Amino acid sequence: MSSILSRATAEQRRQAASVVEDLLSVLALGGVKLPSIAVDWEYGRGTGNYLVDLGSARPLELLRLLDLLRKGLRYERLTHDD
Questions:
Q1: Which residues pair with 32 in a beta bridge?
Q2: Using alpha carbons only, what angle is made at residue 41 by residues 57 and 8, rounded to the nearest 5 degrees?
């Protein structure tokens, strides 16, 4: 990666790494572990856009994640003033 592109995408790289770290922390609090979540650094190096690959997970982990998302959505609906 050229130094110009590297400087131009520094914030995107930091943001991608930070969001993965935050997501893993929140999921761990909910008892969910996605074993292969990662930033797609290769794609980002070529395009300047860094994607987060959620990877593979066991169905049991995804069921837990779905349960947490549903509960969060219900809570939001109950507490959101329209």
A1: none
A2: 140
pTM of the model: 0.80
> Of 41, 37, 38, 54, whose CA–CA distance to 9 is shortest?
41
State which H helix or E strand residue 40 sits in: strand 38-40
Q: Tokens 């914030």 map to which residue?
A: 11
pLDDT tens, 21-30? 999 999 999 9
Q: What tokens does 29 get?
A: 């609090």
The C-alpha atoms of residue 79 and residue 13 are separated, in whole angstroms, by 34
User: To which residue do tokens 């999921």 refer?
Assistant: 27
What CA dihedral angle connects 19, 24, 29 and 35, to 10 degrees? 160
Q: Is 7 exposed, middle or buried (0-12, 13-18, 19+ CB in 10 A)?
A: exposed
